[in-house]
Amino acid sequence: MGKLFGTDGIRGIVNETLGAELAFAVGRAAARVLAQDTGKEKPLFTIGKDTRISSDLLEGALIAGLCSAGADVLHLGVIPTPAVAFLTIENKADAGIVISASHNPFEHNGIKIFNAEGFKLSDELENAIEDIVLFNQNLSLCTGADIGRVIYADQQEADVYIDHLAGTVDTDLEGMRILVDCANGAASATAGRLFDRFPKLHTDIINADPNGININKDCGSTHMEQLSAMVKAGQYDLGIAFDGDADRCLAVDENGVLIDGDQVLAICGAALDEQGELNGHTIVGTVMSNLGLHLFAKEHNLSLFCTAVGDRNVLEKMEEGNYVLGGEQSGHTIFRRYATTGDGELTALQLLAVLHKSGKSASQLAGICSRYPQVLLNVAVSSRERIEEIMESSWLREAIEKEEKILAGSGRILVRPSGTELLIRVMVEAKEKAIADAAAEELSNLIKNKG
User: Fold this and answer.
1) Tell me, what's the pLDDT at 1?
2) Which of 62, 167, 209, 225 is deepest in the core (most CB within 10 A)?
3) Which residue among 102, 289, 330, 444 is the active-site one?
């Protein structure tokens, strides 16, 4: 991990660790690096943002940096992250930039860069941008006709994306009633227009009134309580929740019970396999995928490949094996036939199409993949070196083996270091939560005492 770019771009609290000066420098460096990489004097960048109050500030600084280094900018405004990736490809742009901190509170923000194919920028190009920002602050700026210009997109750009999403399903969703939570985020600009493409579908939308500081606040995919209660009280067939930049989608069934990302993978994976469209009979998940998804795959004669945590890792495995479906428990689901990244609105449509065609209730569909109780505890450790010593220790290995014997094949233990913090994460799954709690507490207390 570099000093600026993390696993999902640059993140920080605005005007504390991420400000206009840094955004300008990143924009200027990105223009220079992409010009060198593409051989173009004026590379074209698309740029979109979520609804945070700070997104305008960072957008202005980024655009100034890009144009000052000779890049042109297609300004997309408030729009979901996956829409930027898609429209980068559609407009034959050289890169796309998203200003968003996804599911985090409003005071946070971030900068994520896609390449011309709509994939997250390679480590090599991120490192090149980082080196310029950190070590070459005095790059010359363009003058005269070499300065870049800004092209302001109209509603038609978003409509191209919405039309693409609507075209991925072959059903009108007639007779269904859904409630959609936009998290007061980027989906507020597109979700209503997307579901309007299905006039026989009854759609009610909540939390689509962003004011700059209410994004993700007690709503969306990180706070499902309101949606759950309203779906049950309103007798909806399904509730759908996006996060701040709409690259995640979680759902609740007609009883208000959570349908998580693992269950979405199971539902859609089973349908794709039945249609002969699940390449290699394989779903790609992560090491955090619930034991229920593992058992589902085994029962349905499917393969489940598990990567390190992060949708970037999932996508790399999908590309490597030409797999069409992958994702995370958190709701990042990638339908590779239609997208290069997790897309919440695309996921919602795919789930709705399977639900509509099945003639079953959402709870019946989700029932094909049980969710085992999962306990996750974080243990603070003094240094990265000490974390490595603990992870390599014989006493930790023996303790894990002891707890696994207690689970007797009816549970799972995962102990791993955090990639971003001085933490060791202890995750235990079991058929009964009390058993998972006991094993997780035993291991975390041992690590605390030894650490």
Assistant:
1) 42
2) 62
3) 102
